[in-house]
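User: quick one, fold this
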Amino acid sequence: MNNKGYLQISFGWLFAIIVGAFILFIAIYATTRFIGTEEQTLSAKTGKEIGILLNPLETSFETVKTTFFTMPVETRIYNKCNNYGDFGKQIIQVSQKSFGKWAETNINVGFANKYIFSEKEIEGKKFYIFSKPFEFPFKVADLIYMIPSTEKYCFVRPPTYIEDEIDELDHENLLLEEDCSEEDIKVCFNFGDCNISVWENAGYVEKNGDKVYFEGDALMYAGIFADSDIYECQLKRLMKRLNNLALLYRDKAIFISRTGCYSNLNLLALSNSAEGLSSSSDLSSINYIVEDIKEQNDLANCKLW
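Assistant:
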């Protein structure tokens, strides 16, 4: 009898332990799923907030604007780009550190009117950003450059106008040669043996074994700070925007011609060239059309922009 009673008590305890363990498992699983969902929601929210923070960088008639933002925890920002559709999309994906681990997320936040040039993945708590207008020949868009505070760029032998601009920006991580250290990323102008080389006369930036071609300062900075894949994708997006704007200005030219005000700018050729761009190496041929249009517009009695 005693043995039977002993077995019954043991079974009761065993049953209680199994049920308790099952309930604990369900609770942990539900909590983990909840935390994962919250992390994804937070990442999406952070991505949207970063996009909103970039809005004040629209330069209007100013040549450059600069600011920074600080995240509460270590953050990875993934810069993605696609060039599908009429304007393509700027895509931001954010991952933040939680309990010593990086939260996984597949949530992308997209913007049709943003053009961010950076490495594909940047990490830190503080990020510097500045922007410049891209004019080709009229203003196409504001280009935004995003750099983590942990990366310092040393500009070696830049032309005077770039040196003056670096001074004006007064960024802690954009330095001139006299303030640089050995650990900084060297950006050299018109000579090699550096992390990044800018060849002004040839019109290209050489970085990590890749070349990207540029026209104007705005694209030059883009080539310095961005991965080549990001640069080429964003450039194609800019050309899509240029294509649409050129057609709008062409319509404007037709409209004002009814009042006897003629511009005779070759905007259709500009539109077709922009639409046909396959890579940055095509920029120089488009630039011939751009320079001609710019000169004609500057001399015209009825300017389109």
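User: anything notable?
Assistant: The chain has six helices and 13 strands.
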